[in-house]
Input
Amino acid sequence: MSSFDVFQIGEVKIDQDSYYIEIYESHILGLRHIEKFGHIIVLWWISMRNTPKDRATLLVTPPRLTNPVETGVFSSRSPSRPNPIGLTKVKLLKVENNKLFVDRIDALDGTPVLDIKPYLPGDSVSLIDIRLPEWFESLKD
Amino acid sequence: MSSFDVFQIGEVKIDQDSYYIEIYESHILGLRHIEKFGHIIVLWWISMRNTPKDRATLLVTPPRLTNPVETGVFSSRSPSRPNPIGLTKVKLLKVENNKLFVDRIDALDGTPVLDIKPYLPGDSVSLIDIRLPEWFESLKD
Output
């Protein structure tokens, strides 16, 4: 199995009530026109789960379920997974130089950011077309 | 800037008219219940752009535009980017053991796969709420 190297281009910042992504000065040019997008996809490195144990995890029990079920990591968004890459779609509220202010992010302050991608129409699935296992159906509401 | 290690858990296969993702036997347990999802998000490694030049690219000109514009890599889905991680949402057509048959995938045969995530309602943005730069507006049709 081949392995590859990724590196940090910025980090998540949580400052009182605001959430932003700070891109390093070395990569600021890559942000040109980002303010023209309404939503972005953030890929980050889930540092806290970068352990041999977490990366060997293949079965997980998603939290907050009425009837807990043990399911595959690839069928869940568990942070414990072979490659601990987090993915969140966020709303882009404003851009100030190398800071992207967003509506929320399910990552901790200081989390390394790996990539930012603009959210395009092809990323969208209408809510009525999303098919989920019965234990996730409640998330649709 | 910290760097991190990711590894291949499977690969993209393009076989005549069918597209599928083959997950290695070592990771097949992680697929439990995946067939209950209608769509998945595939993260893969864009091997052909894993070069120092491509990874230093910060400005790109998206293809197929009526009026070409030079924009930031983080404002585009260009395969040349600091961390060449490809992301596509695909429809899951059927699952046969370690093979996930999908409707399409914009990756080449043999492309290393890094992660599979289920598509959840939180990944969706309704088409009318997606905001794009003027040069991408035609993609909305």
Chain A has one domain: 10-136. Chain A touches chain B through 69 residues (CB under 8 Å).
